[in-house]
Amino acid sequence: MSFVRVERRFQGPERSGNGGYVAGLVGTALAARLDDSHVPKVTLRMPPPLQQDLVLAATAEGARLTHGDVLVAEGAPVDSDFLADATIDPVAPEEARAAEALYRGLHNHPFPTCFVCGPANQGGLRLKPGPIGAGRTACTWRPAADLGTDGLVDELFLWAALDCPGGWTIDLDGRPSVLGQLTACIDTRPQVGEECIALGRYLGEDGRKTYTASTLYDADGRVLARAKHTWITVDPAAFN
């Protein structure tokens, strides 16, 4: 058991934590206790509170993030085959950079303070996932030095970077959504300062839920990490 806090830098909406970052807190704690046949699936149960003491407990059977008696998020192991179709075909860095100019969040972002993709968060990852055809997004990402402790990017921030490239495959203007569930696998960690490519893909929707996938590649075209998401349609005014 450990105590963690979601500092304001890591917010998603103005009053709560970024879903990918918080899922990463739970997911990395659980992943450290799993073998290669399983990956962590993290479900967010409420908007993660900012700047509050949270309790994180993890075993090989699962993980829980709580605020007092309230469950904030929980993780469970699932078969690694769940992510068998999560890898998105890569694109050239030039195509990913060109897509950034079309990133809709620069002008009409439902959560502009988002740690991963918010233009108003100066301490964020600054991802700009733009469209590269129907149902797909791409962008580049050069992780800053403070995102790693040994010259490699911490797994927590790879979880975060897997978040919004999937989210922007949704029509977030007409269907504002927040992350409800993230299942991820970190294959290898890139060096800080290395240019990476992040891709997102739309998978489908059912009622208020939308399903997407994302993949991170390094500069040599190696898969760094893969994920699948479930997004929940919301009223942004309830979060900002």
The number of E-state strands comes to 11
Q: Helix count, per DSSP? A: 4
Distance between the termini: 31 Å
Biggest sheet features: 11 strands, antiparallel
- Beta-strand content: 25-35%
Strand order in the largest sheet: 1-3-4-5-2-8-11-10-9-7-6
Give a short synopsis of this structure:
It contains four helices and eleven strands; from the N terminus they run βαββββαββααββββ. The protein has helices at residues 19-31, 93-100, 155-161, 164-167, and strands spanning 2-4, 38-44, 54-59, 62-67, 70-79, 130-131, 136-141, 177-186, 196-206, 209-217, 223-233.
What structural keywords apply?
240 residues; mainly beta; eleven-stranded antiparallel beta sheet; globular
Can you put this structure into words, describing what you see?
The protein is mainly beta and 240 residues long. It is built from 4 helices and 11 strands; from the N terminus they run βαββββαββααββββ. It has an 11-stranded antiparallel sheet. α1 (19-31) packs across α3. The longest helix has 13 residues, at 19-31. It is globular and about 45 Å long. The two termini are 31 Å apart. The model has no long low-confidence stretch (mean pLDDT 96).
Reconstruct the topology from this structure.
Blueprint: E1 2-4, H1 19-31, E2 38-44, E3 54-59, E4 62-67, E5 70-79, H2 93-100, E6 130-131, E7 136-141, H3 155-161, H4 164-167, E8 177-186, E9 196-206, E10 209-217, E11 223-233
Antiparallel strand pairs: 1-3, 2-5, 2-8, 3-4, 4-5, 6-7, 7-9, 8-11, 9-10, 10-11
